[in-house]
């Protein structure tokens, strides 16, 4: 029962997180300036709404779990997800749905196989091609092809593959596996962003630390604020509140100023946002390391390093620094 529930959580979370944001982006016209600006605003307030939900989860739901029972916390989450389904379906008649055109994995595999066949298998038959070029029939076919290319020059310019990743360009020359220039360029785009995905894999370590080790750190520290004892599981409130404050400021102040300064439509490009986020994540991990050194030093000085029953005489607010930088970097 436990593992079945965990697998269902993974399946449901993967389906929602992987499709909800793209579905929202498809509701805006990417061919118009206003559509692209509205799409940027949508993403900012999409994060804002997620943070608002997380704020309720790490405060009200955590309090229910600690004081009433975990079953009630899971029950509230179940009811909330159930209520979200009719809300989502209520707008189904007005949604702009992108018609599926097949699996992208099939296109990627087709282009890679076609390019490999041309580069490896058909490379050895280049001598036959050289002999063929001298024949009259081939020269006639070349002239015919040149005439066709000159009559549709504009179309050919649009369908000409780019010079990046040129080893894949031979895929469109394969007669066995037919590949279009558009499919070739789509595969190139995917391959170009793989290094970015590779660089951001380590960010999962940061996210895993915030929801696990940082909570364990706070559980050993003094979690009192005056007469109020804060549950360690409520620590994510720091990045949540900061993102909720940052999202409107970013959309209404930072972006308009950046557009005037950079003279560009986006103001701050996606790559710049990713770069800033990675830098802030590095700072968050460095701060986390410093806080852990301080926590263990205080525990050693207080002879509490091996005693988990007593809280270490250091406030849990030290954890807030790494949460702040990590939350900003995640946004």
Automatic annotation (TrEMBL):
<comment type="similarity">
    <text>Belongs to the major facilitator superfamily. Proton-dependent oligopeptide transporter (POT/PTR) (TC 2.A.17) family.</text>
</comment>
<dbReference type="InterPro" id="IPR000109">
    <property type="entry name" value="POT_fam"/>
</dbReference>
<feature type="region of interest" description="Disordered">
    <location>
        <begin position="134"/>
        <end position="155"/>
    </location>
</feature>
<dbReference type="GO" id="GO:0016020">
    <property type="term" value="C:membrane"/>
</dbReference>
<dbReference type="GO" id="GO:0022857">
    <property type="term" value="F:transmembrane transporter activity"/>
</dbReference>
<keyword id="KW-1133">Transmembrane helix</keyword>
<dbReference type="InterPro" id="IPR036259">
    <property type="entry name" value="MFS_trans_sf"/>
</dbReference>
<protein>
    <recommendedName>
        <fullName>Major facilitator superfamily (MFS) profile domain-containing protein</fullName>
    </recommendedName>
</protein>
<keyword id="KW-0472">Membrane</keyword>
<feature type="transmembrane region" description="Helical">
    <location>
        <begin position="70"/>
        <end position="90"/>
    </location>
</feature>
<feature type="transmembrane region" description="Helical">
    <location>
        <begin position="233"/>
        <end position="250"/>
    </location>
</feature>
<feature type="transmembrane region" description="Helical">
    <location>
        <begin position="43"/>
        <end position="64"/>
    </location>
</feature>
<dbReference type="Pfam" id="PF00854">
    <property type="entry name" value="PTR2"/>
</dbReference>
<feature type="compositionally biased region" description="Basic and acidic residues">
    <location>
        <begin position="143"/>
        <end position="155"/>
    </location>
</feature>
<feature type="transmembrane region" description="Helical">
    <location>
        <begin position="271"/>
        <end position="291"/>
    </location>
</feature>
<keyword id="KW-0812">Transmembrane</keyword>
């Amino acid at each position: 029962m436990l593992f079945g529930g965990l697998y269902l959580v993974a399946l449901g979370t993967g389906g929602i997180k992987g499709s909800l944001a793209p579905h929202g982006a498809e509701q805006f016209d990417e061919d118009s300036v206003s559509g692209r600006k509205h799409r940027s605003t949508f993403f900012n307030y999409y994060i804002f709404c997620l943070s608002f939900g997380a704020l309720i989860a790490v405060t009200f739901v955590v309090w229910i779990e600690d004081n009433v029972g975990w079953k009630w916390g899971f029950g509230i989450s179940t009811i909330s997800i159930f209520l979200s389904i009719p809300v989502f379906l209520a707008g189904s008649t007005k949604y702009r749905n992108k018609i599926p055109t097949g699996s992208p994995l099939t296109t990627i595999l087709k282009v890679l196989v076609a390019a490999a066949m041309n580069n490896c298998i058909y490379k050895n038959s280049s001598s036959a091609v050289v002999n063929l070029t001298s024949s009259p029939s081939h020269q006639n076919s070349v002239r015919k092809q040149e005439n066709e290319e000159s009559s549709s020059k504009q179309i050919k310019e649009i369908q000409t593959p780019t010079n990046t990743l040129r080893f894949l360009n031979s895929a469109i020359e394969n007669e066995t596996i037919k590949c279009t220039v558009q499919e070739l360029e789509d595969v190139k785009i995917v391959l170009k962003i793989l290094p970015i995905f590779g660089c951001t894999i380590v960010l999962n370590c940061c996210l895993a630390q915030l929801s696990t080790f940082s909570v364990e750190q706070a559980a050993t520290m003094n979690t009192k604020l005056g007469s109020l004892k804060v549950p360690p599981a409520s620590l994510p409130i720091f990045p949540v509140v900061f993102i909720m404050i940052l999202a409107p400021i970013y959309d209404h102040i930072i972006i308009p100023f950046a557009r005037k300064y950079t003279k560009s439509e986006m103001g701050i490009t996606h790559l710049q946002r990713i770069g800033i986020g990675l830098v802030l994540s590095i700072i968050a991990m460095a701060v986390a390391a410093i806080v852990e050194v301080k926590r263990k030093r205080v525990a050693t000085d207080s002879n509490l390093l091996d005693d988990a029953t007593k809280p270490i005489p250091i406030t849990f607010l030290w954890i807030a620094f790494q949460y702040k930088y990590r939350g900003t970097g995640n946004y």
